Amino acid sequence: MTITEQRPSYRYVGTRPVRHDGLDKVVGKARYAADLVLPGMLYGHILRSPHAHARIVDIDTSVAEAMPGVRAVITGADFPDLPADDPERNMTRNLMARDKVLYEGHAVAAVAAATRRQARDAAEAIEVTYEVLPHTLDILEAMEPGAPLLHDDILTTGLDSEPSEPSNVANRTCYERGDIEQGFASADVVVEGEFLTKPIHQGYIEPHACVADTGQDGKTVIWCSSQGHFRVRSQTAAMLGWDTSRIKVIPAEIGGGFGGKTTIYLEPLAVELSARAGRPVKMVMSRDEVFRATGPTPGSVIRVKLGATGDGRITAAKAWLAYESGAFPGVWAMLGCMCVVSPYNVENFLIEGFEVVVNKPVNAAYRAPSAPMAAFATDTLVDEIARRLDMDPIDLRLLNCPSAGDQAPYGPKWPLIGLRECLEAIRDSEHYRSAPAAGHGRGVASGFWFNIGEASSATVNLNENGTATVVTGSPDIGGSRASMALMAAEELGIDVHAIQPVVGDTEVVGFTDVTEGSRATFATGMAVVEACRDLKGQLRGRAARMWDCDVEDVEWADGRATHSGGEHEPLALADITAEAGRTGGPLGATASLNARGAGPAFSVQVTDVSVDDETGRVTVERYTTAQDAGTAIHPDYVEGQMQGGVVQGIGWALNEEYIHDADGVMENPGFLDYRIPVASDLPMIETIIVEVPNPNHPYGVRGVGEVGIVPPLPALANAIHDATDARIRELPMSPPRVLAAINSGNGA
Amino acid sequence: MSRTHVSCNINGDDVEFLCDAGESLLDALRDEMRLMGAKEGCGTGDCGACSILMDGRLQCSCLIFAPEADGAAIVTVEGIADGDHLHPLQQCFLEGAALQCGVCTPGFLVAAKALLDRNPDPTETEVRYALAGNLCRCTGYDKIIRSVLAAADRMKEEVAG
Amino acid sequence: MRYVAPASVAEVVALLAGDPEARVFAGATDLVPQMRAGRPEPSVAIDLKKIPRLTGVSLTDGTWRIGAAAPTADLTGNAALAADLPGLVYAGGLIGSDQIQNRATLGGNLCNASPAADSVPSLVVNDAQAVVAGPGGELTVRVIDIPSGPGRTSLQPGEFVVEFLIDRPLPSTSDAYLRLIPRTEMDIAIVGAAARVSLDGDGNCSSAAIALAAVAPTVVLVPAAAEALVGGPISDDVLATVAAACAEAADPIDDKRGTVAYRRQVAGVLAKRAVLEAAGRAGNGGGR
Fold first, then answer.
1. Cβ atoms of residues B8 and B72 within 8 Å
2. If you count residue pairs, one on A and one on B, with CB atoms under 8 Å apart, how many are there?
3. Nearest to A659 among C36, C256, C262 (CB)
4. pLDDT in tens, A567-599
5. Helix ranges (DSSP H) in C23-105
6. Alpha helices in A294-370, H assignment, sequence order
7. Which of A146, A298, A388, C122 has the fewest CB neighbours in a 10 Å radius?
């Protein structure tokens, strides 16, 4: 279902063609990084730390180097040590430990050998002498003075005065407005609570993989699974101390990322091993390595206090957010601060966030990073206000709903946004208008993510037969190639399947930032449209030349050049490209841009659950999501993003969590005990695409990849409360936790 | 250590390959036969991305020792189309947008084929349980389930027609 | 590692006798993940699936014979077996995905010796016997006597399970198995409970057995729960006693899957529900 607010109707945009890369994927031909085989290729294997925190006293690789089939062994000492102020320093120290290992799974050495088995055996034969250090796994404990320090050079930034002693708190973010004391004083209802979440993995099904082929000329070619091959190039160059021009990165098909493939883990290691061995090297992580050593999204401790008047106006909000970054600092707390109360107009607030390092894998982005935990706190408390005031939870949200011109908590004035329309879409949905089945509980929640723009490039070439090739630098993680083709089809007026969308490597297309922040269809789409518009100008010029008339007399519409005086038969695009050789040569255009004006995204969701009150098992009985897409270029893949985001959120809410033992060793590094949802856990996810077009994009695109994961955490918590009266403020809401909450009478 | 010789039929072709006894059939398919359709998502039988049919039984090829395939008939995703004619499941997955990243798709197609081969008219719940051994992190399963049901309908029409 | 696929029990016995590092397998659904997690490879992996006796499922002289290497999909696909032993068949159908059930076996489920093995409580309440082959020939052992702790069995070096023998249940007898997992599929049981109930003509319970999984180092029988059931109707009071007896008999640990308190409480809940399900079927005549 799509609810559209005043947008033009299009011929191609908004249709649902079969995706261009689909056939290869249903016949097993699509080539992912692990599928590449090169002649003479070796296999790489990484030796990882068994300790959560230890000093590396010595690494002896001599036995490994002498083992059969071994062609190269490397350690951290084989890479340049970047200066303390280099922004990539932490990345390089994550990829290969120096001096200390900071989490269980931290890489300490790597081997290339003729077979996987030989590489693994040799890696295991590397002797590392560790001096085990005390570790810290808990955010609050890590923040305490006297906690084991991961780094001796972290001085908390963002405090009123610079601290003199290092700590595990990397920075403080603060947003403040109005008079919070007065805001709470004017409230009739005040609710507050502390909310706890664990690290969650992105859980892409394809483990990280790459092949590197380094030549004797000092150049290398990397095939990899990444959300951004230009970043692979720059990060690999940084770790190797190379100039980027020595590195070519070819994006393979990517088997899921969700933010987790916006950084690198393997590539510089493979390049260095390949350089030493003089042979191509493939590195593929096991699932176990993916869990232990690649980025989960942070665990968090979030305390929120909200005040509201008796008629439901939120008067004040106080939020204290601590996010664990893993072993090196990130930006997670700041992102959480940006999102924590954004679906609400609040005049008085104080939002404080802290970034805390702990001895766990370094966090990476995961779909609307940091927003779901923040929403879990806020939207649970908003539900409590609605209950205290006996108000409908959607009416309460509508009453406090920001709209264009209001000031967002993190600074800017809201542009045109679609939160109100999403709230109304849920309120008016068949799901919300019918009462939950007997015994089921219902929960509602909203979520916000700001979306981003950044740099994108596209090249559009017209072929002699009137077809087009669209080359972009955005790896396609959810159907973006089809969206690029649809926008190009709309611009050029040719069939969407006459357009071949391609993701180009770092040497065939202009610089393009990572596919993240819901930006590909927005920003790269803008570049495609700009290139197509350039081409349309060229096509008019060619038609003018064919007709021997002024270009001003040529109009371009519906894929045809028409003469304004009607003196010539219209020329189809193919008529012009067929003559291109005689009218000035091949037709092509390139656009590179910094996309501005990303449209903030909102989603509102409602779910009905049943809870077995003797076992605490929660069953999601029904689920409906409404999300503002701006304009849905390919509605199937917009729905796919919405549904995928919701189900990841359901997994996070109910069962997923990193479990570490007392030594900091991960206890559930596999899909058996890291429980992502399976098909039988779920109902159909009903989708309502709301279209409030983004005025800053030629087709109104907002970006749809992320916000869908935000509301499920509070929506399910609210539904469980509705079913059981138990308020659960800690994730996951797994059967033991839910039953304990039911047993205790009111909340864990 | 000498390698083990295996003769089997893969997607209709009689083939032979050499493997290590402890190697998985998945690795043998990929490394020895260069059939890259089956994927390794976990290596422990938990994700289903490596699903194949061996003697008509749906299995995770990562749990099969390669020598077990000796004498067996194996079908991989590369073998489910009929020449240039896609299997209705493949067609319905395309039309129904049942894939995003596509890395789980080969396993889903093989598992769904195994289901429809034994139960041509499954309910939504039956499809969900039959595919519970195949993890997809992109789609939330919705469009996969709908596409399998659509393929079942299409196959029934083909039989009836 | 070598791979061999013998055609007879005798060959397997000979292979095991000559090599303490040799190991039998059928589905390898536990063996392969264990090897990937770093457990040493066996010297020889002895594939039991090529021995017809080990993969068959048959009913002779009132006794079901289930090959130790028969995939559990062959149990769920056997309507006569499912009518006689619905709880056991249901338990077999809970082990992993369809993919897993085309490989996983009762023999492997038992001998892997996980306290959470789904099929073992049902084997135990049905008083299944295991035929064990070894250097001394074949002997018959009660299934409950085989697990001796997590990952450990009472089998001696050179011994392996050939098949299971289960007497056909009497009329008005049935079984049931329930487990608690966080998802709907693909998980290891946090708690499991099997019940077998016989009813007399008046609807009173004439015999019963209750066994629990994942609440102790091995599967445990709960005689106190069975005693509470026998001799009268299955009332709410009796069920409360059953639940309490099961919670009492449970001796679980806190681990990544659940807590002591949770397992104790839910053991009672599942046992009560399993009794009701088994009794419901028994009241309809059981499998006969």
1. yes
2. 178
3. C256
4. 999 999 999 999 999 999 999 999 999 999 999
5. 31-36, 52-55, 72-76, 79-84, 86-92, 98-101
6. 332-339
7. A146
The residue assigned the tokens 């149990």 is: C75
At which residue do the structure tokens 């909310």 appear?
A: A195
Report the first-to-last Cα separation within chain A, whole angstroms. 38
ipTM: 0.98
Closest C-alpha to A638, from B149, B124, B143: B143
> C43, C181, C24: which is closest to C105 by C-alpha?
C24
Q: Does pLDDT of B32 surpass 80?
A: yes
Q: Which domains does chain B carry?
A: 4-79 (3.10.20.30), 88-160 (1.10.150.120)
* CA–CA distance, A303 with A316 (Å, rounded to integer): 14
Average pLDDT on A717-736 reads 98
Provide the edge-to-edge strand list for the sheet that holds A554-557: A554-557, A560-563, A571-572
Which residue in A124, A611, A659, A673 has the most chain C C-beta atoms within 10 A of its own C-beta, making it the best mutation to test that interface? A673
Which single residue is written with the structure tokens 């029409």? B157
Listed by number, the residues of chain B in 65-84 with a beta carbon closer than 8 Å to a beta carbon of chain A are 76-78, 81
Q: List, by residue range, all CATH 3.30.390.50 domains of chain C.
A: 179-283
Q: Where are the beta strands (DSSP E) in A327-453?
A: 348-357, 441-449
How far apart are alpha carbons A115 and B32 in whole angstroms? Answer: 13
The strand order across the sheet containing B13-19 reads B13-19, B4-10, B73-75, B51-54, B57-60
Mean predicted confidence (pLDDT) in A135-151 = 97
Q: Identify residue C25 by its one-letter amino acid code.
A: F
Q: CATH number of the domain at C2-167, please?
A: 3.30.465.10
CA atoms within 13 A of residue B130's CA, in its CB half-sphere: 25
Q: In this structure, are residues A331 and A144 in contact, taking their beta carbons and an 8 Å threshold?
A: no
Q: Is A659 left (phi over 0), alpha (psi -120 to 50) or beta?
A: beta
CATH architecture of C179-283: 2-Layer Sandwich (3.30)
C-alpha angle A118/A123/A128, rounded to 5°? Answer: 155
| Interface contacts B/C by beta carbons within 8 Å | 83
pLDDT of residue A748: 39
Give residue-wise pLDDT tens across range B106-130.
Answer: 999 999 999 999 999 999 999 999 9
Q: Are A547 and A497 in contact (CB under 8 A)?
A: no
Summarised one tens digit per residue, pLDDT across range A39-84 is: 999 999 999 999 999 999 999 999 999 999 999 999 999 999 999 9
Distance CA C187, CA B153 (A): 31
Q: What is the pLDDT of residues A335-355, one digit of tens each?
A: 999 999 999 999 999 999 999
Give C-chain residues touching A681 at CB under 8 angstroms.
Answer: 183-185
CA geometry: angle A213, A217, A223, nearest 5 deg? 20
Residue of B34, B97, B136 lying closest to A636 (CB–CB): B97
Yes or no: say if B130 and B115 are a contact pair by the CB < 8 Å rule: yes
Q: Domains of chain A, with CATH numbers?
A: 453-595 (3.30.365.10)
Query: Is residue A534 packed enough to be buried (19+ CB in 10 Å), middle (13-18) or exposed (0-12)?
Result: middle
Which stretches in chain C have pLDDT values below 50?
none
Model pLDDT, residue A5 = 65
Q: Left if phi > 0, otherwise alpha if psi is -120 to 50, otherwise beta: which for A591?
A: beta
Give A462-481 pLDDT, tens digit per residue. 999 999 999 999 999 888 99
Tokens, residue A442: 């219902």
Contacts of A160 (CB under 8 A, 6+ apart): none
Would strands C129-134 and C173-180 be described as parallel, antiparallel, or unpaired?
unpaired
Question: What mean pLDDT is predicted for residues B7-15?
Answer: 98
3-state secondary structure of A474: coil
Query: CA of A740: which chain C residue's CA is closest?
Result: C262
Taking CA–CA distances from B43, the nearest residue in chain C reads: C33
Q: Return the structure tokens found at C150.
A: 């997590």
